[in-house]
Amino acid sequence: MKIGVRAHDYGKMKIEELAQTLHERGYNCAQLALPKAFAEIDSYDDITVAHLDKIRTEFEKHEIEIPVFGCYMDLGNPDDMVREKAVETFKKCLAYNKELGATVVGTETAYPHLSKEEKKIWYPYMMDSVKRIVDEAARLDVKAAIEPVYWHPLENLEAILDVMNQIQDEKHLRMIFDASNLLEFPDTTNQYAYWSEWLNEAGKYIEAMHIKDFKLDENGQYCPTLLGEGVIQYQAISEWLHKNRPDMYLLREEMNPQTDKKDIEYLKNL
After folding, report:
1. pTM strictly above 0.90
2. Domain spans, the chain
3. Does residue 182 contact residue 148 with C-beta atoms inside 8 Å?
């Protein structure tokens, strides 16, 4: 398995500095949200071919693969202008990726925490956006990836399977799996059974995994923790990886640079 990180957890740096830092910290790969990671880029509209060429060259030099080009957009928003801007920005990043060469351009399907009723309302808008970005991905012959999150319209296993069945393009539409974003009820969920079902049903679509951990405080608020010190139980996921995808990209999110060595060791043991 390939051990990586969400690069901007180390802060915003110049391109060559970030590539060198990730190499020195012991990573094989990284997820890049370009405006968050690089001092030279402040928005997706700022990206140039020169930026992309330099990123690709520096990351190759430091032996850091780029599994995910992060372009997280509000794809399900019912506001036509917001949604159109989201789709067009994502399409632009699909074109950028012809030069950058990341494995996928990845996104969630919304920004806000949605209620049950809101998720139903947003779902068809999300589906329309996904179809449009996959059409563009197919035209360019690159891969898009969507990330399920329980408070978004793409909220559960049923939803991701519905999208994949409607799109019918496994080559150009992939998935990012993040257990922490799918565990709505940590106190009552049989995680071994839950993750086993997810991976048995949708594992073939997964291009990369986000790995993080958390606890809930006395007010039920999300609190990031070191890997292995929170509520996520990774046994079923680890077993599935060893049996089915020993080449998987494991991308640590919410990394604290002060404790990164402990998390990297945990990832290696997965």
Report:
1. yes
2. 2-269
3. yes
